[in-house]
Amino acid sequence: MKKFLKNYDFEDYFDSLILSRGKNYYKENRILDIWWQDDLVTAYIDGSEIYRIELRVDDKKLNNFHCSCPYSEDGEYMCKHIAAVLYYLEENEIPQLEISNKKEIKQEKHKSELSQIYDEMNYKLRKISDRNGYVNYYNGRYYVNLINNVSHYIDDFIESEEYNSAFELIKYTYKFIKNTFMDGSNGEFQESLYLINESASKLLYNDEYFDIFLDYTKNIASNNILDDFSDAPLHAFILYVYDKDSAIKAVKILDEIELNTYGIFVNQTLDKISLTYDFINKDAAIKMCYENIEHCDVKELLIKYLKHDNKIDEVIRILKE
User: Three-state DSSP class for 118?
Assistant: First the structure.
């Protein structure tokens, strides 16, 4: 822990209105995270968005500053966010970002990035919610946009091979969606979950995280952790399928996992049949249809396959039964 700017009179460098707003931000505890390394103080603050502030400081003075907000991003003017951080430094010691090797640097970077994303998600959720935390019918589309942005973060982590950060963000977002108090009558929950399932399916191309995500999926399904959405992670394995081998793996997983709730995304019997027909063996899939013909919607699927094979007499026979 270290204290900066001892007895430093910074208030004269600010417009009085900006200074007053900065002091209010400090008193409202809007500083989300703050640390120092060498002579650089880094902070994140909750403004109209989550902004990053960087200050070059020593014990006595401020040497340089930057805030990512529009007012101060060119480095010419000091904003209320910088003022809030300076008030914080005036009264508080701050922790050092302790880094001993490249691995720890990467871990701290990812931890900071995830923390910033979580804060951004919750801030944007507050913006579209009423005073009771409810997202109404009209704001549902903004919620889906929020989750769409998160899916891009996940994709970026995967593309840069930051798999653990992607996995942590996927897990956080599933719970975030599950805990959202929303009207959802336009399918916003399903659409949002599909976006995350799609991103999660890309994580499965990494062998290590395929196994990690499978263990997570089994735990979610067996303990019904996401309530009605507990089949969502399992759906990622279906979206992952791209050839015969991946289909065989997905079918095996569908056999292994038992859902304790009605699936929104996954119908295990139908999905096993469809994957078998599309990627593995058409005759085996049709045999599965006959074996499960009393199962909901299997008869319709069988008729579809028989029509495709031009077996009209068999279709007529089934329809007459």
Answer: helix
- Distance (Å, rounded) from C-alpha 224 to C-alpha 219? 8
**How far is residue 304's CA from residue 298's CA, in Å, rounded to a whole number?**
10
What does the pLDDT profile of the chain (321 residues) look like in tens digits?
A: 677 777 778 888 899 999 999 999 999 988 988 888 878 899 989 887 788 899 988 777 888 898 988 888 777 789 999 999 999 988 888 888 654 444 444 555 556 788 889 988 988 898 899 888 899 999 999 999 999 999 999 999 999 999 999 999 999 999 999 999 999 999 999 999 999 999 999 999 999 999 999 999 999 999 999 999 999 999 999 999 999 999 999 999 999 998 887 789 999 999 999 999 999 999 999 999 999 999 889 999 999 999 999 999 999 999 988
What pTM does this model have? 0.67
Tokens coding 91: 């009264």
CA distances from 242 to 145, 247, 266 (A): 27, 7, 17
Q: Which residues make Cβ contacts (< 8 Å) with residue 14, sequence separation at least 6?
A: 22, 78, 83
CB atoms within 10 A of CB 130: 10
